[in-house]
Structure formats: C-alpha cells, structure tokens
Amino acid sequence: MSGTQPLFLGLDLSTQQLKGVVISENSVVVYEAAVHYDKDLPQYETTNGAILGPGDGEVTSPVQMWVDALTLLVSRIKESGVDLSKIQAISGAGQQHGSVYWSADAENLLASLDPSQSLSEQLCPIAFSQARSPIWQDSSTSEECALLEKEAGGAQALTDLTGSRAYERFTGPQILKVYGKQPEVYAATARISLVSSFVPSLFLGRIAEIEVSDASGMNLTDVFTGKWNDQLLEACGGPELRRKLGPEPVPGGEVLGSISKWWVERWGFSPDCLIAPFTGDNPATVVALSAPGDALLSLGTSTTLLLSVPPTGTPPKRFTTSHLLSHPTTLDAKIAMLCYKNGGLAREQIRDEYASKDWDRFNQLVESTQPGNDGYLGFYFPLPEIIPPNVQGQLYFHHGTIVQDLEPSRQPRAILESQLLSILSRVEAILPEHAPPLNRLILSGGASLNPAIQQLAADLFSMDAFVCETAQGAGMGGALLAKYSWWKKRNGGGSFEQMMGNVAIGLRRVASPRKEISSIYHSLVPRYRQCEETVLQKLLVA
Ligand SMILES: Nc1ncnc2c1ncn2[C@@H]1O[C@H](COP(=O)(O)OP(=O)(O)O)[C@@H](O)[C@H]1O
Ligand SMILES: O=C(CO)[C@@H](O)[C@H](O)COP(=O)(O)O
C-alpha cells in the first residue's frame, strides 16, 4: 500500500480506544484503525476504557492495557498492508490529564528492550510503580484542589498563572494525592508521564519529555511561558517533583529522537523514523481542524468546545469557569476550552434506555420532536460534572418549573439540547476580545457523523457545521505533528502554518442553520441559565 511515498503516523490514546491515522506527504488519509479497549482487550475488564473505584470518585485505566493496545494497533496497521518502513515520523495525542507512574527500573528496561519478547512481557508490571493510571474522569481529589488553590493564593490567582483553577482531573492535584496519601508509591516513582508522553516513551526507548500544551492541563505550568512553576511543583510533590517530571515541557513538532531498535527489529520500522512529542487529544484536534474564527466541538467520550486564540500583545483573560491552554506549535497562541464529563456516555445511556440502543431510533425521536422540546429541558449528569462543577443526577423542567418525569420520546432531544445550550450560554464569555467572531462550527469525535446531531448543532450555534474526512481529529492532528517534525528537520525550521502551506485539511459542510430555529435556541438561553441555577442547588454532590 502507498508505494514509495513517505508516510506519517498519528496515534490517539483516548478514553475508549487507541486510534491510528496514517497520512501521506500531501496529508491525505491512507489508513485508519482503532483498538477498542472493552471489546479488543476484554481481559482488563474495563467499562468504556476505565475502572471505577475503589475509592469515591476514583477512575483509572490499566497501563498494561494501553501497552497491549499499542502493539495490537501496530499489528493491525501492518496487516492492512501499510509498509511500516515508509513511516518517516510518529506523533500523536493522549486523553488529557491522565498520569503514568514509572518505577526506578523503567529507564533501563526501556533502553534494553529485547525484540524477541513483547513490550508487555518486559515492562509490565516492573516498569511501573502503579499498575493503574488515574484518568480525566477521576474526581477524587477535591481536597487536594482546595490545598493547591490555597497555596497559589486562591482560585483566580491559580487560573491567572496556569490557565485553569484547580480541577480534580488535572495532573497536579492527582500527583498531590499520591504524594500525600500513598507516600510509598510516590517514593517508588522515578518519573511521571502524561498519557501523551507515555506513548512516545515506548517508541523512543526512554522516558519522553512532556509537551507544552498538554502540560498546561496539569495546574503546574505558567500558561504564558510554558515552563514548570516551582511553587506549584513544591506544593504538589515536594522538592523531588521537578526531577520526576523531567525537563521543561517541549513544543510540538520537535524531534525527540529516533524509534528504538525494538520497533525496527520486531516490526520493520525504519531506524530513521522520527519520534515527535505527543500532545493532548483536544490540542491535537485544534491543530488539525481549526483556525481562529472556528468553534470546534469535539464529541468523543467528553464533550469539549475549543477555540483557537491567535497571538496578541494583550494576554487573554483567564476564567475560573473555563480553561486556557498553551498552544502546541505557537507559543503566543492559546486554546480556550470548555470540557464536559457527561458527553458521549450520557448520550449513550439515553439511547439505550429510550431508543432501543440504536442511534437511528435515537435520531428518529430527535426529529419527531420540535426544537425547544415544547418547553421541556432535561439535565443529565450520570458522573459528577465539570461544568457546572460537582453536580450529579438528573432533573427535568417544563417552562422553568421542575417536573417529575419526561416522556420517553422527548429524552433524546432533551439531552442534546441541554448539553449544547450549556455551551451556547458560555461561549460568548470565553471568546477573547481580540479573537475574530465565530463563523464556522467544526465537529469531530465519535458523534460528529450523526446527522441529527450535526443539524441540531448547526441550528443551535447558528453556524454552518463541517466535518473532516476522518472523525479522528486528534489522530489526524498527531499525524500532522509527525509530518511537521520531519518537514522542519528537512527545512531547518519553519512554522506549522508554513508546513501546511495551501494543503487545507478537507472539511465537508454537513448542515446549515435554519434561521427561525436558531432564534428559538437563542431565546432559550436565559431560561436555560435559570434552570441551571436550580440544578446547582438540587444536584450538588460535594
Ligand atoms: N452515530 C453516533 N451517534 C452518536 N454518538 C456516536 C455515534 N457513533 C459513535 N458515537 C459515540 O462516540 C463515542 C466515542 O467517540 P470517540 O471520539 O471515539 O471517543 P474517545 O476518543 O473519547 O475514545 C462513543 O461513546 C459513542 O457514544
Ligand atoms: O478532560 C478532558 C479535557 O480537559 C477530556 O476531553 C479528555 O482529554 C478526554 O478526551 P476524549 O477521550 O473524550 O476525547
């Protein structure tokens, strides 16, 4: 497959799957594949890629499952006919915030991998001081968040410095929990990786540097310089944390090194294949699919709204209710983000309960009801939510008054409308003053190919909605970052935009807003806000 031309591999180790996108030099998708953790690796007994508990709010994933997923994915890519020796560079993305704890043996083991044995056999469990990694769905660190905000001088002060107030899922509070509550694990931990720096470590044969944009989801860096902040490091892990995290974060598109011998000898990769830093799945999607003026709605396990903030002389405002992230390839640019935990899985629960576990039936019900749902609104938070923080449960309203029940046929529309109205009610506030007005809605992630969701999103945000040729926006971003590292090495430098040149990633318009329906949604925002106030009073869990 793909003749003699150079290929680039982008991986995305996300919540439910590990995905891979192979692109050609002109950025066309040559092959995509995925390993679904629950289905393909059932021995790890995950549900939607994760394990809940044993502690309250704890959510983890087995590190060995991710190691096995990587080799299974590479075997699928190879079996499909892709010539692995043509892959010039590998980069990718990881679900944000999750952390991997390496033991003191890890560096040596990674450096001396034996091609006659599997990665899993050689690394698991000995290379890790914790067999399970806390992931972004974890909400067990409220105590640590309060401590960190106090240390930083309050929630706003921490937000001004790092781009976010302390969030339970952010890696700083997660590390503080290990430091404070499992001192023996902390002491046995030589290095800590993000999910995004864990995967390139397996390719490099050494522990990889953390990438600057994903580092800004830790509450440990200055969002403007991209550097570790000593006060925050000390607060989350004492004097040893700097060493455990490794060097200062690196920008995307750098060359970290070449692929290790294990991959060359066992799989047939070229010894010259470059390994570039992986970033977070959300920043990777921004890099691949959007520009300032786009609202990017990622509909994966989480639902996230991402805005690319162009460089400017004035630093953008930081809000305690949203995130500002460093940008993977442009130090002065930023990414504004809203993230919801109850996204895809909450929609799936409604599909299973009221639409016979079938998306077509779900869509029929959406289409058989009217925009605005005749005054009904539903709020759905099976897991403790991020926005609004720490609410859990379900609540229905009719014209702003709580009602006990909602007809089954109205449920699919109710969940879509309330999830998206939550974003609409916030998006204006997080758009920085100097950013261009929003004029395109880009959809990505598993639900982005659903036509009922496409139309409802276009109507609700009053923008044309577009999708990419692949729903794997983060994998595509990874592949482009891989190509960028290769291109930059060949050209002796240059920006990501220069590398992209005139080759725009193909976006297809899938829905256009209908004016009369958009105005119904806009008029619903005050009512939505009023109901959300009630939700905060009734469903707050912490
Ligand atoms: N036709 C569809 N309509 C709505 N949602 C869908 C559809 N197909 C898949 N999904 C959703 O996509 C989600 C997975 O998306 P994906 O972007 O792969 O997630 P992640 O990257 O977090 O692993 C699933 O939870 C599923 O609910
Ligand atoms: O926590 C966040 C962002 O802050 C999540 O968006 C994770 O990055 C997981 O992403 P998906 O697996 O849902 O794409």
UniProtKB/TrEMBL annotation:
Membrane as UniProt keyword: no
Residues spanning the membrane: none
Residue ranges of every copy of the Carbohydrate kinase FGGY N-terminal domain listed in the record: 135-287
GO biological process: D-xylose metabolic process; xylulose metabolic process
EC number(s) recorded for this UniProt protein: 2.7.1.17
Pfam families in the record: FGGY_C, FGGY_N
UniProt-listed InterPro entries: ATPase_NBD (IPR043129), Carb_kinase_FGGY (IPR000577), D-XK_euk (IPR042024), FGGY_C (IPR018485), FGGY_N (IPR018484)
Enzyme class: transferase
Domain Carbohydrate kinase FGGY C-terminal: 296-486
One GO CC term on file: cytosol
Leader sequence residues: none
Keywords: ATP-binding, Carbohydrate metabolism, Kinase, Nucleotide-binding, Transferase, Xylose metabolism
Reactions performed catalytically: D-xylulose + ATP = D-xylulose 5-phosphate + ADP + H(+)
GO molecular function: ATP binding; D-xylulokinase activity
Entry function: Highly specific D-xylulose kinase which participates in the catabolism of xylose. Xylose is a major component of hemicelluloses such as xylan. Most fungi utilize D-xylose via three enzymatic reactions, xylose reductase (XR), xylitol dehydrogenase (XDH), and xylulokinase, to form xylulose 5-phosphate, which enters pentose phosphate pathway.
Family: Belongs to the FGGY kinase family.
The protein, known as: Xylulose kinase
